[in-house]
Specification:
alpha/beta; Spore Coat Polysaccharide Biosynthesis Protein SpsA, Chain A; eight-stranded mixed sheet; 8 strands; globular; glycosyltransferase activity; transferase; Nucleotide-diphossugar_trans; glycosyltransferase; transmembrane helix
């Protein structure tokens, strides 16, 4: 297996991409002035086609995840047969920045893992200038397998840079990343070891556990967020697993073979969705990700401003990933193959495009309806508006259906009613996408920090099934 060198997101566009963008904008401006109706119709047709194709591809993946379950399921009796003395050293990376509110919960969630303590290599990744975090840790008596790793005070100040420092010092055969507020299933590490030992495919070097939220009942936003995650991790990613296409990783609970992760060069420290980028890069290098049927419980953002900051970072990182991997498009297609390339374009690039187009389509359709309301014979005589409206209705129907299926799969039936007003949540996602697009231009490496510890209690964890 060759070593795959990383091309990072230090610069949003390389010189060739800048030249191509300049030529495209000049040509588009010329055509807009010369054949404006034709240009607008062509642009709208292509945008609507991509919008609908991305939506229907997402539906296909969710359908496959629903009816062709491919996650790695580990029977409980198989775990009982594992000899604790034969378990390998497992490294846990915990990147922490201003997370004093959830520190006690974090220590408790790691302590409750059903894994020999002497075989855990727990790295607390702390920024050098994070004085409150260092003081909070100094005031606690940490378990002996916890190690404090100070991240140098240098640019960029991002989670992936901290994880790369932890990777350099990792002692485990396997390595996993958890966020500060995470509560993984207690047997998740054992399931990962069993899966790696029993998989017949040596290309698998990453297992993605499922993520869900323990505070789903807190407010409407957390209910929407939980429905989205249930669809994404319980259906969408398993559908990708079934098709064996590139999987954009989640930001936590990725279980790696440590030596292969080092071979790949770790994470891109300049990409604010480093998880997504790494998932694509490992696939390009000839490796695979599988979905592990185990859940890590997180805290859903319950404050709109905090949620928008997080969402803008995710979407910005997806666009960074799309641009970085398109610096050599011919090589990209050759390494992925056409089908996998289309999947990558629709799942990573498509996410960004659809979120940007969605509010524009709502505005266009709304203005047209307001203008001709009460005159049904004049509604949508123009193919332009008819196309926009059909794309909008189809896309929103699919979005509702996918979130509904995610709730049913996770058996969160109390969330079903909120899925019928999910288009309003989709508009919030679009707002975050436009915010991320603006940041990509003016502050591409800005890391919008998510605040944790906003949940009043963890009673939701018991309701969700957390042990």
């Amino acid at each position: 297996m060759k070593t795959f060198l990383m091309d990072d997101a230090r610069n949003t566009l390389d010189p060739r991409q800048k030249a191509a963008l300049f030529i495209f904008l000049v040509a588009a401006g010329f055509l807009l002035g010369w054949r404006r109706p034709l240009f607008l119709w062509t642009f709208n047709f292509l945008a609507s086609f991509f919008y609908l194709t991305s939506s229907f591809y997402k539906f296909l993946l969710v359908f496959l995840g629903l009816y062709r379950r491919s996650e790695i399921f580990v029977p409980a009796d198989e775990l009982d047969r594992i000899d604790p003395k034969e378990l390998p050293v497992y490294t846990i990376l915990l990147p922490l920045y201003r997370e004093t509110e959830v520190l006690d919960q974090l220590i408790s969630s790691i302590a409750r893992l059903d894994y020999p303590a002497e075989r855990l290599d727990v790295k607390l990744l702390i920024e050098a200038n994070d004085t409150p975090m260092r003081a909070a840790l100094a005031a606690r008596s940490l378990p002996g397998n916890f190690e404090l790793v100070i991240i140098p005070d240098s640019r960029p100040k991002t989670k992936p840079k901290a994880c790369n420092v932890g990777l350099e010092q990792a002692r485990g055969e396997f390595l996993v990343i958890y966020d500060a507020e995470d509560i993984p299933d207690s047997d998740q590490l054992k399931k990962s070891v069993w899966a790696y030992r029993n998989l017949q495919d040596p290309r698998v070097i990453c297992l993605q556990a499922k993520l869900n939220y323990y505070n789903s009942r807190q407010n409407l936003l957390t209910r929407w967020f939980t429905a989205e995650y249930s669809m994404w991790f319980d259906l969408y990613l398993p559908g990708m697993d079934f098709l064996q296409v590139p999987i954009p990783l989640g930001g936590t609970s990725n279980h790696f073979r440590t030596d292969k992760l080092r071979e790949l060069g770790g994470w891109d420290p300049y990409n604010v969705a480093e998880d997504c980028e790494l998932g694509i890069r490992l696939f390009r290098a000839g490796y695979r990700t599988r979905v592990l049927d185990s859940t890590t419980w997180e805290e859903a953002n319950s404050h709109l401003g905090n949620w928008l900051a997080q969402r803008s970072r995710w979407v910005k990182g997806y666009l960074q990933t799309f641009l970085v991997h398109h610096r050599r498009p011919v090589q990209l297609v050759r390494e992925l193959g056409w089908f996998n390339y289309l999947s990558f374009s629709l799942s990573v690039g498509g996410l960004f495009v659809v979120l940007l187009l969605n509010p524009l389509y709502w505005v266009t359709t709304s203005l047209w309806l307001l203008r001709y309301w009460g005159r049904p014979e004049l509604l949508f005589p123009n193919p332009y508006y008819e196309l926009v409206t059909r794309a909008l209705l189809a896309g929103n129907f699919i979005f509702i259906l996918l979130n509904l299926l995610g709730c049913v799969r996770r058996r969160l039936y109390y969330l079903v009613p909120v899925t019928f007003i999910a288009p309003f949540y989709w508009l919030l996602m679009s707002l975050g996408a436009w915010q991320g697009f603006r940041q990509l231009i003016f502050s591409p490496h800005y890391w919008a920090k998510s605040r944790h510890g906003l949940t009043v209690t963890l009673l939701e964890a018991g309701e969700a099934g957390v042990e």
